[in-house]
Amino acid sequence: MPRLLPLLLLFVAACAARDANIAADAQRRLIGLGADDLRLCSGVPDRRETSDGGEFWTYSRTPPSSGISLPVPITGGSMSMSSAGVCSVTFQLIDGRVTRIGYSAATEFGLNRDSACAPVVQGCLRMVEDGSVRTQ
């Protein structure tokens, strides 16, 4: 079992790194996405605010956790590590188009904080890739 621990830790870290890359990719590739397309691929926002800077749509999510739980024979307990977290994704829209995307996230694992935001933007990225929606 002790040999398995480093592999499991590496697996959890790799998943979190992949999701953090998805979140970072969205900050570039979703610029120019229209408001209707954003609603189509991410759903109705949890909160909307308007200011001189445009409209701000915020999506708050708690994605399913992924992690490991291992027994610790010496203490009789277990050790758990998870990449679970909560995320708020805020899209700034000007003239009905996404101009910026910001993340506010926290994870239990402590690495790749924005990885918890990937589920909010993954659907939009898929739709951009397959041509279902377009950015300008």
Number of helices: 3
Share in helix: 25-40%
Question: What is the ordering of alpha helices and beta strands?
Answer: HHEEEEEEH
Low-pLDDT windows of residues? none
Describe the structure.
This is Lipoprotein. It comes from Plastoroseomonas arctica. Residues 1-16 form the signal peptide. The chain is an alpha+beta fold. It has one domain (4-129). 34% of the residues lie in helices and 34% in strands. The protein is built from 3 helices and 6 strands. The protein has helices at residues 4-29, 35-42, 118-129; strands at residues 47-51, 54-61, 67-72, 77-82, 85-94, 97-107. The strands form 2 sheets. The chain has a 4-stranded antiparallel beta sheet with strand order 1-2-5-6, covered by helices on one side. Strands 3-4 form a two-stranded antiparallel sheet. A hairpin with a 2-residue loop joins β5 and β6. α1 (4-29) crosses α3 and α2 packs across α3. The radius of gyration is 18 Å and the shape is globular. The model has no long low-confidence stretch (mean pLDDT 80).
